[in-house]
Design brief:
Length: 97
Amino acid sequence: MTKYQPGPSAAGVGALQLFAPDGSCVATLIKEVAHQSIQIAVPDRAREDWPRQGDTERTGLHWPEPDKWFFPNTDTLRQKMDELVNDDQQDKGGFFL
């Protein structure tokens, strides 16, 4: 895992990496343009709008190594992403599942 390096920020955008307990990135929530919806990027899959249809109360994330599922609370992830998007100082962050 690399150490966070603050860089230029723009309000309304952000990327929140979702980490497995071992520090591996399972997925990333991304908002590249202020008026765009949030997307989820999962390794080896196409980006999708988030929350996905099945991500009502919990967001299902599969990590193939070691074949493990994570089910973080969707509202908690939405709150973390909202905080990041509304932060004028940073546009990147992380959340451990």
